[in-house]
Predict the 3D structure of the following.
Amino acid sequence: MDEIHSLLQGFVVALTLKNLALMFVGIVLGVIIGVLPGLGGANGVAILLPLTFSMAQSPGGTTSAIILLSCIYWGALFGGAITSILFNIPGEPWSVATTFDGYPLAQKGRAGSALTAAFTSSFFGALVAVILITFLSPVVANFALEFGPPEFFAVYLLTFCAFIGMSKEPPFKTLASMMLGFALAAVGTDPVTGALRLTFGSTQMLNGFDFLVAVIGLFGIGEILLTLEEGLAFKGASAKINVRVVIETWKELPRYWLTSLRSAAVGCFMGIVPGGATPASFMAYGVARRFSRDGDKFGTGQVEGVVAPETAAHAAGTSALLPMLTLGVPGSPTAAVLLGGLLIWGLQPGPLLFVEQKDFVWGLIASMYLGNIAGLIVVLTCVPLFAAILRVPFSVIAPIIVVICAIGAYTVHNSMFDVWMMMVFGVAGYAFKKLSYPLAPLVLAIVLGDRAEASFRQAMLGSQGDLAVFFSNHLVGTLTGLSLALLFWPVATWLLSGLRRR
Amino acid sequence: MSTGGEGRAAFRQTSAELVVAALFFLLGAIVVYDSWRLGAGWSEDGPQAGYFPFYIGLLVCAASAVNFGQALLGKRDREKAFVAVEALKLVLSVLVPAVIYVGLIGWLGIYVASSVFIAFFMRWLGKYAWWKVAAVSIGNSVVFFLIFEYWFKVPLPKGPLEALLGLG
């Protein structure tokens, strides 16, 4: 039981006063970020990442920094549910499915039970995912230690093909947006030859596009512009949670154990393959509706209809860190930003992390247990406070969020050019969202572009330019084969539906 | 988004699709061109600098060509609005001031520019009393100043006012 031993060591690392304080700060900030439109998990973490640069330089500081940032992520996952249930506005894309039954419950005056159910099942989903991470990630990391460049490139290929095969958006739009991300990642100095690529003589382009700026623009500014279309005022149910409602809801929840388990399984699966929390929550909602005895009452305010998407979203959001830590391939945009943080702090995500940075990895995993407990306590006790934030009129909140985004973009490299780029990305994000070009593969490609290119070039060097290297042994062949299968999945389904119509 | 179909359309969905696909194609073509210039082939020491981006650029072009074609041939969304006039007005009412705000940062520094931006917003869209406008806009900048300059020691752009007060 090596894992238990390592985990206990992790608790020793995580359980310092400073780290516990950071955990609570992270959770509270995260919930606020999750509640506010235009600030979500991904860009909230991106904006705060530069503030951890100096923190990460002290001994043990990287662990504190990752605890702060990951807790912001957990907080944002919790926070998304608040706005969905009380205001019928999903604060985060993964809480869209929570509005289906959450808001009707609130209208019936049962906002308290809806919120309690959402938070508790979020916690349950996260817990399942963390247990999975605890026991599965050392195995995966150990396995991946044997990987060479072709295997790593095949894993990247699998990640990106999974986006095309599994996303709801049209496959060619997914492809276009993903490849744009790779192109943006290529801008600047070529790490191997030192040649200047795509800079066209501009000195500001020398360092390339920073993914943090892209995330802040695409998700932050873009989201604000989208929210504005819906008008300036929010109207919502009032939030009242007291101990009696919490206990009563908790008594009701064990009835949905099967739904919870199913949703957690869906969530973990979708988090590890880069499907992400948003499709996971929709899928879990759909599955629950089909299998539940009250399936036909879904949408009218069923507690079960809140339990399913919330469990899955949180399980997916958490388990997205598993491939990020073990393979260096993030399963969600927020995990991608966290991965970028690791790179900036000088850590190499991937299997070696489990060998060389034991304290960091297990400190982080232990903090996931603690952070989610802290999160549950914070959201259950402070819901009215967080809901009050949304009552601040948009004409005050919107400019403040724009200011925060601008500061976040500036602090990445202390450059005004980045702030202008943020605005460009903001307009692009708005247009992409409206035309259903997915943003997640774009962000993942910007983050992973350099690494994917490096492993591709190393693999090509090793084989003297022969593509057959990606089928040269069972492991890499299986990975490549799976990738191709996923890539052509849309074609297969299209052909099948064509045949059926005939 | 639910607002798509309401009101008079400022742009139609199809036009927006075509423009975005064309822009994608243009970007892809630039990438292909520059990678070709750098050398997208194979030299003695391995793949050249443009080797990987060249194919990326080709894929961008190919994917956007398909998207362009689909938008052109698709009949479903032909009459659907990309954005209604009313919604566009709201969006521009944030976007235009935000662009001016970013322009002001270089000139006035981020703290003064942010105060002006927030004040303008609260007064123009929110119609708040002047004392509330002043309290929120100035208070916000003071709080950010304390957080960034003192607490985290992250210097943000400053302008003439900070120099006058001896803070820059």
Summary: The first strand of chain A starts at residue 188 and ends at 189. Chain A touches chain B through 59 residues (CB under 8 Å). Strands of chain A lie at 188-189, 196-197.
